[in-house]
């Protein structure tokens, strides 16, 4: 990508950028013109994406390795490094995370804690450390990839659903607190999306599930997801749900007839 020093281009920091939804976010922001910070644990994949984005003419790219479970000290240093690159971060896309495919009674507490550490505490830490600088700048936008699992729980996802329900509540509260500082919070709640999230999901003992789940095999691809939600992302909508008809019906039942939804989910096969 051609290097530019134009300070008017936004700086976008994307976690979980090495594949799937995070990669799609990077591609979409690159098309619009932006300086990108790409973060995940897989540096080799980030470098490949950086090379792929050289076809877009505007903006620089920084590859920044990041482990959301590394702890507060490490994450605060990463936040300082990200801000120092261009002396600002306009948008933080909290997309990094892991899922789960195991029954609660067969899941080690260590596995549940890892789900919460990555999906909840790591995401909250980055946001907590970046927000004071956004407040001082007088503007900012934090996007969080949540899930319809943050709206209702299903089998095999107890720890994952717990983390996403907590994310929903936490960032609803943060949004209210940040309103007076001109900082927007957007929660993106996808249904099944065709990414590697199922293969990388944790089983009860913390090992990778290693295969594509039935729900995700024929699901929407992440680039189509971004195409659908992009106008709402640009408009900084508070919450964006992107899902198929079954998930939309489930969300409706959750509000209007939760007993019926619970009965359906008890009988369903969800993998």
Rounded to the nearest angstrom, the radius of gyration is 18 Å
Amino- and carboxy-terminal Cα gap: 40 Å
Helical/strand content category: alpha/beta
Tally of extended strands?
Answer: 7
CATH architecture: 3-Layer(aba) Sandwich
Which CATH class is shown?
Answer: Alpha Beta
Element pattern in H and E: EHEHEHEHEHEHHEHH
User: What percent of the residues sit in helical stretches (DSSP H or I)?
Assistant: 40-55%
User: What is the molecular shape?
Assistant: globular
Helix segment tally: 9
**pLDDT average, as an integer?**
94
Largest sheet: 7 strands, parallel
Report on the architecture of this protein:
- The structure is a single chain.
- The longest helix has 29 residues, at 109-137.
- The relative contact order is 0.13.
- The protein is α/β, with parallel strands linked by helices.
- Helices cover 47% and strands 13% of the residues.
- It has one domain: 3-Layer(aba) Sandwich (Rossmann fold).
- The protein has nine helices and seven strands.
- Helix 4 packs parallel to helix 5 (158-178) and helix 8 (245-256) packs across helix 9 (258-267).
């Amino acid at each position: 990508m051609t290097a530019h020093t134009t300070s008017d281009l936004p700086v976008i920091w994307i976690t979980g950028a090495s594949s799937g939804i995070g990669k799609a976010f990077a591609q979409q922001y690159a098309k619009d013109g932006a300086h990108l910070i790409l973060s995940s644990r897989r540096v080799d994949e980030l470098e490949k994406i950086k090379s792929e984005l050289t076809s877009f003419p505007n903006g620089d790219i920084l590859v920044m390795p990041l482990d959301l479970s590394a702890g507060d000290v490490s994450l605060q240093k990463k936040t300082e490094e990200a801000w120092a690159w261009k002396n600002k971060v306009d948008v933080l896309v909290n997309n990094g995370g892991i899922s789960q495919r195991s029954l609660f009674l067969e899941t080690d507490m260590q596995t549940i804690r890892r789900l919460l550490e990555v999906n909840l505490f790591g995401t909250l830490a980055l946001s907590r450390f970046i927000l004071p600088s956004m407040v001082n700048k007088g503007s900012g936008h934090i996007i969080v990839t949540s899930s319809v699992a943050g709206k209702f729980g299903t089998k095999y996802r107890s720890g994952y659903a717990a983390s996403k329900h907590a994310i929903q509540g936490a960032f609803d509260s943060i949004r209210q607190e940040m309103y007076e500082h001109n900082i927007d919070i957007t929660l993106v709640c996808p249904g099944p999306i065709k990414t590697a999230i199922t293969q990388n999901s944790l089983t009860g003992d913390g090992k990778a599930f290693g295969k594509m789940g039935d729900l995700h095999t024929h699901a929407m691809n992440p680039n189509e997801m971004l195409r659908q939600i992009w106008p709402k992302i640009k408009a900084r909508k508070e919450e964006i749900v992107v899902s198929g008809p079954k998930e939309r019906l489930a969300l409706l039942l959750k509000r209007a007839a939760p007993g019926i939804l619970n009965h359906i989910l008890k009988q369903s096969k969800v993998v």
